[in-house]
Amino acid sequence: MQKLGTTLSSFIIDEQRKLGNKASGEFTGLLNDITIACKGIANLVNMGDLADVLGATESENSMGDVQKKMDLIANDLFIDALENNGHCAGMASEELDEVLTLPDGKPRGNYLVTFDPLDGSSNMDINMDVGAIFSVLKAPKGKENPTAEDFAKPGTEQVAAGYCLYGPSSMMVLTTGTGVNGFTLCTSIGEFILTHPDMKIPEETAEFAINASNQRFWEPAVQEYIADCIQGEEGKLGKRYNMRWVAAMVGEIHRILCRGGVFLYPIDERNRDVGGKLRLLYEGNPMAMIVEQAGGAADTGYGRIMEVQPNGDPHQRVPVIMGSKNEVEKILSYHKS
Ligand code: F6P
Predict the structure, then answer these.
(1) Is the pLDDT reported for residue 125 higher than 70?
(2) Does ligand 1 have an atom closer than 6 angstroms to the CB of 248?
(3) Which terminus in the chain has less CB density within 10 A, N or C?
(4) Does 283 participate in catalysis according to the annotation?
């Protein structure tokens, strides 16, 4: 007999069922909203130039990055999916200067969602990997319009995190704090199907990902670690390393979930004052939760990413070192010494 497999919706409902009476179905509804946004984005990304979604706009986001057409479209699709169904109380997005509250009259839910609707968007025009990253937090009780302070919670308080990778196939990877599961989008039936249950990151690796063109700006610990990797068998680390750079964090983390590795976007001389390059609330924290839930480690070089206390800026930055546990620990030993 042919089988459809486990769809993402039935997986989420099943998880909810395990919670018995405690679950109202709202969280399931929220994850379904996010899934619908991701399916909408996957469809357009997949069409590419045929859907007229390539190229840049004239605007910049809060971080001064030129916004691509698809950045704005993906952002709109997330907002549209989240603001109408009464599961979400507020949003923070890479593409919005301030946190977004819901229009008057829309039902408020019990969750806050932060997202980067199209991570790695400079890859759009060259038909390479892009993705969406999201994090779910509890909304403050009884507050009609949550403020930036309500989003300022450490990553340890996330109730779910995930990403959707738009690569050769589209994949949703999700954690609700009990492991990590991966679902592949079947475009014929329009459903994400469970294909990668209980994903685990191998503890050992010999593969690193870092933008090596920034080498002269890195802090000494990272300089030394990468120099030792490049030395290969003759160096202190005693093995030959491989390097990869997708230029989209979603792609790097997905590779690491599939076969191990480490991804570094460390603090460097150019971004020291602002605290790094990647954003804490919608890049660092959700990816750290996924990586830790898959048995990996995620650190700034000076402490666990998920324990960084947010400062109230929704676009706060953070240095990132994450991936295979033993390799991350090795990198941290360079920081300590
Ligand atoms: O905004 C973040 C991001 O696009 C990440 O997804 C990616 O890892 C990084 O920036 C790429 O940076 P660079 O421009 O240094 O290659």
Answers:
(1) yes
(2) yes
(3) N
(4) yes
Say whether 118 is catalytic.
yes
Amino acid making up residue 325: K
pLDDT for 3? 79
Catalytic: 299? no
Atom of ligand 1 minimally distant from the CA of 116: 1
Give the pairing type, strands 88-93 and 111-119.
Answer: parallel
Is the C-beta atom of 120 inside 6 A of ligand 1? yes
Distance in angstroms (rounded) separating the CA atoms of residues 133 and 223: 29
Q: Is the pTM of this model over 0.85?
A: yes
Residue 57 clears pLDDT 70, i.e. is over it: yes
Structural domains of the chain ordered from first start: 8-196 (3.30.540.10), 207-336 (3.40.190.80)
Question: Is residue 129 lining ligand 1, measured as CB closer than 6 Å?
Answer: no
The active-site residue out of 26, 65, 76, 203 is: 65
247 lines ligand 1 (CB under 6 A): yes
Alpha-carbon distance of 109 to 120, in angstroms, equals 30
**Short-list 288, 280, 264, CA closest to 317:** 280
- Quote the tokens at residue 203: 């503890």
